[in-house]
């Protein structure tokens, strides 16, 4: 890799997966430790003035955007400002910016898969913040790659998978929507995609724009939960026997979470040659990491 790569958010699950995968191919990341209060406009300005990398992967707010149960309006607003400043700095220093986004920019009213051409209409606060961030990145920093991911699964104890597994040990019953669909996407697979994009950018390929990626085989929340439970029983015996089916409309997060969140991944295949991988085959290693850390 000729480019000098900077990774913001190297301590979170996706950042760690990217560092692990890069190490296997002798690709190193400069992964600075964030300030105690987190990255903000001032600290990012100082960082990039001092370091001037060739490409920057911004996973600084990964947990809030992809794994947290909820994120406050004030916190998201501060993150928006920081990413806007980051985009300005990348443009000023001619740094390529790889910025993650999410299926949450869509409202879930479309039954068929969402392509990059569909107009975003976000439902909740997080989706709205991500859509504003996307717009600012496009306006300010032309040399960008926006990667919208499907349902990201990681081993963090407080992440979506971790919360589900804790409930499976503790609760008498769990209900999940049998009419809500998306692309489960293990964090190692998302890291593979980011690395593949970086390799192409390293070849000076001007492949800028917005791309979708989600694991192969769309699934309902219920089917995903059942698959996770089935695999987790190989590692833990004290888990709930079964999951109850529930309608999306009856779920407490129905106003914020898109009912139909399947992403079409043809553009990333045709542009970067990245093929979707089956998410089910990644569950054993993902669950093994989770249980080793709890």
UniProtKB/TrEMBL annotation:
Its cofactor is Mg(2+). The keyword Oxidoreductase applies. It catalyses: dTDP-beta-L-rhamnose + NADP(+) = dTDP-4-dehydro-beta-L-rhamnose + NADPH + H(+). Binds 1 Mg(2+) ion per monomer. It comes from the Bacteria. The keyword Phosphoprotein does not apply. Keywords: Coiled coil, NADP, Oxidoreductase. Pfam families: RmlD_sub_bind. GO terms for molecular function: dTDP-4-dehydrorhamnose reductase activity. Its EC number is 1.1.1.133. Residues 3-291 form the RmlD-like substrate binding domain. It is an enzyme of class 1 (oxidoreductase). One of its GO terms (biological process) is dTDP-rhamnose biosynthetic process. SUPFAM superfamilies: NAD(P)-binding Rossmann-fold domains. GO terms for cellular component: cytosol. Residues 69-96 form a coiled coil. Belongs to the dTDP-4-dehydrorhamnose reductase family. Catalyzes the reduction of dTDP-6-deoxy-L-lyxo-4-hexulose to yield dTDP-L-rhamnose. This is dTDP-4-dehydrorhamnose reductase. It comes from Pseudomonas borbori.
């Amino acid at each position: 890799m000729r480019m000098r790569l900077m990774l913001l958010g190297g301590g979170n699950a996706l950042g760690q997966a990217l560092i692990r995968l890069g190490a296997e191919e002798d690709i190193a990341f400069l992964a600075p430790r964030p300030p105690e209060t987190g990255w903000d406009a001032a600290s990012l300005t100082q960082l990039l003035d001092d370091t001037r990398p060739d490409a920057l992967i911004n996973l600084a707010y990964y947990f809030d955007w992809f794994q947290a149960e909820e994120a406050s309006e004030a916190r998201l607003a501060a993150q928006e400002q920081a990413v806007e400043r980051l985009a300005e700095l990348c443009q000023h220093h001619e740094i390529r910016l790889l910025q993650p986004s999410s299926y949450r920019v869509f409202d879930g009213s479309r039954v068929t898969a969402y392509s990059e051409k569909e107009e975003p209409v976000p439902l909740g606060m997080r989706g709205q913040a991500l859509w504003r961030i996307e717009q600012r990145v496009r306006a300010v920093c032309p040399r960008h790659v926006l990667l919208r991911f499907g349902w990201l699964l990681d081993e963090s104890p407080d992440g979506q998978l971790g919360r589900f597994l804790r409930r499976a040990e503790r609760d008498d019953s769990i209900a999940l929507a049998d009419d809500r669909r998306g692309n489960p996407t293990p964090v190692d697979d998302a890291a593979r995609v980011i690395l593949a994009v970086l390799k192409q950018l390293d070849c000076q390929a001007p492949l800028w724009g917005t791309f979708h990626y989600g694991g192969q085989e769309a699934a309902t929340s219920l089917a995903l939960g059942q698959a996770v439970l089935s695999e987790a029983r190989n590692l833990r015996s004290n888990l709930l026997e079964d999951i109850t089916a529930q309608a999306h409309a009856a779920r407490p997060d129905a106003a914020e979470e898109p009912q139909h969140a399947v992403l079409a991944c043809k553009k990333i295949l045709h542009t970067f040659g990245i093929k979707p991988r089956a998410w089910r085959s990644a569950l054993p290693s993902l669950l093994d990491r989770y249980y080793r850390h709890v």
